[in-house]
Amino acid sequence: MSYKSGRHFLQLPGPTNTPERVLRAMSKPTIDHRGAEFKELTHRLLEGLSAVFKTEHTVIIYPASGSGAWEATLANVLNKGDRVLSFQQGFFAGKWAETATRFGLDVRVESWDPRRGLTVDAAMDALDSDHEIKAVLVVHNETSTGVTSDVEAIGRAMKESEHEALLLVDAVSSLAATDLRHDEWGLDVTLTGSQKGLMLPPGLAMVAVSPRALDASRRADLPVSYWRWSDHVESNANGVFPYTPATHLLYGLEEALAMLAEEGLDRVFRRHARFAEATRAAVGAWGLENFAADASESSNAATAVLVPEGHDADALRQVILDRFDMSLGTGLGPVKGKVFRIGHLGDLNALTLAGTLAGVEMGLRLAGVPHSPAGVSAALDVLCA
Ligand SMILES: Cc1ncc(COP(=O)(O)O)c(C=O)c1O
Q1: Domain tally, the chain
Q2: Exposure class string for 40-59: b at 16+ Cβ within 10 A, else e
């Protein structure tokens, strides 16, 4: 392979670009994971993560990807044969439901239009119709569709209702990109991965656990060993982990948390919202269609763009990769070939986004996808506003 000058544009909806500061923080010698220095690091990380999850309760870190956090969540809080509720929000909601099925849970999958955010009414109607439901699985930001659901409304409504079901939230692509308040919104488990808004390489999974969920974990009887929360809580209190932790990713996490604190979470969210708005402006000006049916539910982390009938989104992505060295997200599941996804989360600025959209516009031209060449200019208007 010949050398490609300039930097690769990694504009996937995760993994996202790892900032230099994080990479440098990770290039340090390994230390004793039971030593004093490490114990202090553990305490700082748990405190820093609590601020990002907006919780005063338990936070647990695993050397895993987001899928590991799905499994950890189910295995800790549920009992054999428990009924759980899931909606057809998209590819990742489906994978989580499949994980639950593999655990022998009784998964009730409700149909849902993947182009719309899950509503509080839909969640409450399903709960009202079935008092056997022990947990509701909701993906805050369905990365495959670029649609965000109103987890706040669902959390508040469930809290106010008589329902005992736990609310389990996948925040893999929303945490640190979109506001999320684990305690205030009444979420029972919020889970995430390191490779998206947290700007780390893949390899860490994190969960925030409410007191109610922690209590449920003491009574749950699904087989759980490596993921067992009680082991983590006990070890973490002493600054250690119940296994050999991923030391270097933890170094990186400390730096990423410092960066988020320096920028300020509210500013981080505003930046993501502005980049998402600029991207939508580009999509509209190209004359293409956003997969998210309603702009108010369109994700701040990623935009899924439909290509016109008769065109292949993956062929377009390939042209963009070959000619401009930029990776965009593929369509997943039923929208394979029909959408491409522009990731605009994590460590990026206005110029990164402008370059990304310019790459897409040039790709549309080269791949012969009908469009109006006005997208970049429309996005710049938003970025300059
Ligand atoms: C919303 C969502 N949930 C879960 C996952 C699965 O995470 P991982 O691929 O890290 O296992 C992803 C991955 O992109 C995701 O976007």
Answers
A1: 2
A2: ebbebbbebbbebbbbeebb
